[in-house]
Specification:
With 88 residues, the protein is mostly helical. The protein has helices at 10-65, 71-87.
């Protein structure tokens, strides 16, 4: 039979297990917070890119609607714009 000194204390085991679970939870929470920060930065970059693209396309269509360029020229500009946007 094991002596009282060498017996495993269930309370100590529970505290150790709880501590390990808490450490894992804190690491997961830190990773989650980091991902939130990255996602916000990505969203801001996409918002800016969409605004820029929208402005550029509006410029082309305003010129076409004002008769400053032909429909063929507008289509060529949109095509060039879209191809160029995909490469950057």
């Amino acid at each position: 039979m094991a002596s009282a000194a060498s017996a495993v204390n269930p309370i100590t085991l529970a505290i150790n297990a709880g501590s390990q679970v808490l450490q894992i939870g804190m690491k997961l929470l830190a990773q989650h917070d980091e991902r939130i920060t990255i996602a916000k930065e990505e969203n801001a970059a996409v918002k800016q890119a969409v605004a820029t693209m929208d402005n550029d396309l509006q410029t082309i269509f305003k010129a076409a609607n004002a008769g400053e360029i032909t429909a063929i020229e507008a289509m060529a500009l949109v095509r060039t714009f879209l191809l160029g946007t995909g490469n950057s």
